[in-house]
Structures are given as structure tokens and as C-alpha cells.
Amino acid sequence: MSNPVLVDVMRGDVVESRHRGAIVVCDGDGRVVLSLGDVERPVFPRSAVKAIQALPLVESGAADAFGFSDEDLAFACASHSGEPVHAAKAAELLARAGLDVAALECGAHWPSGEEAAHELARRHETPTALHNNCSGKHSGFLCTCVHAGFDPRGYVRREHAEQQLVREALVDVTGAAHDEESCGIDGCSIPTYAVPLVSLATGFARMVTGEGLLPARAAAARRLVAACMAHPWFVAGTGRADTLMMEAGKGRIFTKTGAEGVFCAAIPDLGLGIALKCDDGAGRAAEVMVASVLAALVSDDAALAARLNELAHPVLKNRNGMGVGSLQPTEALTGLAAVGG
Fold this sequence. Notes:
The chain is of the alpha+beta class and 341 residues long. The protein is 43% helix and 19% strand. The longest helix has 16 residues, at 215-230.
């Protein structure tokens, strides 16, 4: 099945590039509300499922034992830009568990935030694992290990007790098998499992509705989602899509990007989850897709829908700041959105 073109990249009035993809919206029972493209094909969700991966942090009692605030919980679900406050937050959380940067097994990379990277270079410093976009999630893993009495060494390996807790949470929330055959290794070295988009959308709906989850897990899920919506900057960073959409939503929408063109979201008051994949892995196109669908689903809120539609039509500028084109949702995507509205 060939997925439809969902986003056009315009240079002037001419289509320069096109992005295909698939989108699905589900409720907590797994009922498909809207779909477009092949939503049964397994995809690696990558960082989109960090809130699910953070469930053991809350359920084990580690978050409370180490005094995690809502800000801290949001950071445990983050794909952050490596800005100074992000790096400091990771170090702070590790210190509460008696650890430091040496315990992180996520690897180091330059901050994705351009100014943060420039600042490090100006100081003639090199990045550490604290700057890794996944350092918040890994700090949460390590806090769970210390609280639960697990040896933190090798916590990224599939067979480690921490990753077994994470896998169990993913299976329970999404309802999809997470087995060795579907397992890959994520950019931050932990296991990642390929599952259908429909399972991811169902899982995100369950994170906000609690459908099919035990009471303690449902409460932990709502707590994590609420923390992310209340502190979106700690989930992403300055000017990032997750930050902008959740700031606009003011507690009404939860979004989480993943690598390679994956995006997931939920609307708690509607009890709906959203999952999508841009076939060619383009994050900018995935951002247009999720903003378009969210705008349609919250059409009862004119101001929020207008802001999301604005984010779904970003202007492209050159190095001189001149507008040279834009990204545009295609009729296939706006048609799906019309059904949702």
C-alpha cells in the first residue's frame, strides 16, 4: 500500500518536494476514529513513547522518593535541545540518586539547540552526555534503578531489569507485542520496538483515559501527561514543535515527537490518541501533519485551532531571512482534517 502525499514543500508557488505518510486517530478502546495510509505497518516510535517509558519511574515510587516535581517529570519524558538549563537539570536529578554524568550510557552529542551549541563552542567546551537529548529519560531510568535496588550498570541493555519494566509498560499500554523480532537499538542505546501506528495511537489515548490500565498505572500516566502539558519547555526546548503546540494548548493537548518522522499526541478531554509517520523521516513534515490533525480535532476552540493551523503552514526562510516558500498540508490531509472537524 502506497501512502498518500500529505505535505507539499513549496518554493514560491511551485511544489519542490513532497512527503508521504500515514496517520491514525484512536480512542482508548482501540477504535479507529480517523485513518489515512497504512496504519498497520510496524514503525519504530523512537522518542515519541518517552512518557510510556517513564511509567516505571512513577510506579516504582522513585519519582516521589527523589522529590521529582512536575518539571522534573516532564524532563524525564523529554527530547530536549541541550540548553544549559536542560543539562543542569539532568545533573541535578542524577545527584539526587547519588550519581553523576559518568552513570549515563546514552552517549554525548552537541546540543540540537543552535545557541546552546554555539555557547559551548565559545567556551571551548565539548558536549557531555548531559547534553544528549535523552539525558532526562536516562536520568529517570537511573533514579528508578537506584530506588529499586537494580545495579545501574548496563541499564540500557534489553535484558536489564529496568528495560524489562519499560518493555512491560509499553506492551500493556499499546497492546502490541514488543518482542525480540521487532526490537532495534535507539539512538540513545536503549531498545526500541516496531509496532503499528494504530497501537501507538491507542496507547496515547489510554495514557489520558486510563482505559484498560490498572488504577495505579492510569494515575501515573495522567500525572506524566499533565506534567508535560504544564512544562512543555522541559519536554523539548526553545522554539521546538512540542513546546509551541503544548504552550498553545494550555493543558488541552499533549504531543511528543520521535525521530525519523514519527509524531504522537493525545487530547485528554476528547479521549483520543494520534500517531503518524512521515515515510521519508522528515521531522518538518511530521510537524505539519500533527498540527493539521490537532487543529481539526480541537476546532471547537477557534483560537487554539488557528494557532495550530499557523504551525501547520510554516514559512521557509533563507539565510537572509527572506521568505522563499512554505510547507503546506495537501488535500488528502486537509480532507482527513475536515472529517475530524
